Amino acid sequence: MGWAGKILRVDLAKGSCTPEPLNAKWAAEYLGQRGLASKYLATEIDPKVDPLSPANKLIFATGPLTGTAASTGGRYSVITKGPLTGAIACSNSGGYWGPELKNAGWDMIIFEGKAKKPVYLFLEDDRAELVPAGDLWGQTVWATEAAIRAKHQDPQIRVSAIGKAGEMGVMFACIVNDQHRAAGRSGVGAVMGSKNLKAVAVRGSQGVRVRDAKAFFEATTKGKATLAANPVTGQGLTTYGTNILMNVINEVGALPTRNHRDVQFEGARKISAEAMHEKRPTDGKANLVHNQACFGCTIACGRMSQLDKGHFTVVNRPQYWGASGGLEYENAWSLGAAAGIDDLEALTFANFLCNEHGIDPISFGATLGAAMELYDMGVITTKETGGIELKFGSAQALATLVELTGKAEGFGKELGLGSKRLCAKYGHPELSMSVKGQEFPAYDSRGIQGMGLTYATSNRGACHLRSYTVASEVLGTPVKTDPLATEGKAALVKAFQDATAAVDSSGLCVFTTFGWTLDDIAPQIDAALPGGWTTQRLLDVGERVWNLERQFNLAAGLTAKDDTLPKRLLTEPAKTGPAKGKVNELGKMLPEYYELRGWSKDGVPNKDTLKRLGL
Amino acid sequence: MKITLKLYARLAQYLPAGAAENQARIELAEGASVNQVLEQFGLPPAHCHLVLVNGVYVAPSERPQTALRPDDVLAVWPQVAGGGWPGG
CB distance A269–B82 less than 8 Å? Predict the structure, then answer.
């Protein structure tokens, strides 16, 4: 009934795979995926555990709508304690892996302990087996997927894997499935590597049952019509992808540039969605080849790009000449503006390699930007970089270092620490543009005030996917608010956080919320699950999940002092654009936010709040 | 007076001949309003979702009376969104 009702517990130390029933009470309270797996994690591990120790657990979780006919019902999340942040980590991915797991009859997999030698899990419907992966250790994500499919002689096996970055403990290593989709943030790939777990390969043929098939198809068909009629989810995202934002965010003066020294990038247009559509003068072809959809998605925002074969990054490297996962906005920003680089082909190449080696492009690009500032200041020299000239704007440095970081070699190993540890190592912790150790995405909170509160309070460190107030403050969805105002932003952030936590627990993609509200989503969940699911119940789930994550983080040792922003954003005014002269005014928003949350002045949930949420 | 007109996404087709990289310098009468420019270039009002003058949003109700000044930058988008890497 939406849920498969079964989870797999894998003890890597013992080499055992044990099925167990899904905790139905928790499922009713936390829905699935992000919420439900967070409940399992918070219950089963000591929040103070070292994230890279065997005592941490790693959960792959689907939602009740994963693998169903609901539009975008293809998501899964990886939940663990994150090494980059020391906070609870939940990274969400699309593609086809999640539905395959659900079709094999499982809601989630919980990995415990550490394997003595490298292994991968092979799951074929009810059959689960840990397979030696010594021959795969050191291989890229792409090579691993190909090898596992060949070994089992089944090209339809879906593989979620780490590259060498995850094996070597790169702090922002991610877990990649279907070549271009990733559970990207917070270093979940490093946790997987620490467990000697190379991949999770799945083949499922059981289908997904829903409570009321007729009601479900009516609700999901109506939902698809709504998405199709919406100019964003029916046309904008499909045609231009997320990188349509590059020129928008630059124009409003909130495009973090050169490690947030600037808020506008002179090269923004060259790396925008518009540029991806244009024919290159060099070979007469456009960077963008076509769009691509994840499982069951009617939006299809994904980009497939092809490089100019004559570009310096791929000359004599034909393995990169085919079409592969192209630039999303966040990646175009992090690999581009964050380091002042405007070479679209180099950014695309770097994006390919992030997917191939399994590193988060946001944290990688932002850390490169921080390293370039240290180089600009003379703190880092070619002595440390192994001869690489780490100048802002250098596409050569980007191309070289993305590969070195992916392989955890040379100066790439240093970048693999993430910006917080790198900047601290070189005596300038203030230059890490991060919150709780996780690097910012592509919005400068001096120009979009609500995003400052979003970042400061995000339970997984700086992140745009926990509360995307940009939608309201810049894009006017669902209502336009002033990006430079602080009034009302606390309520806006809380509303976005709770709604997003509910969507992240459902199996749906958060991008549906450009066209759907929870009123569109609730009937789809209600038709799939027993127990009566309303918009209010989903909001309650979202708030419960948010507070559960908060409780985990507090128990892990984080405090209200961690709900802050780097000094640069609080004290150095934006130099240009509409926000010229502005800093982020977090202090005006945070107390109100705590109050709205029902938390103390120290950011601790009050007893009444916990009781109300059943925590 | 001259201003810079920037049109993005599918609105780029409304740029005057000779425009490049989504923008053009255009000549306007003194005191021309935002709406007058949008009308002059045949932009369908329903598609002018995000209208910025020097990066600052101008609501539909304000567009008729918002006068442009020399060297202003008027940038227009249809309804667009992004928000991330659908792997996050």
Answer: no
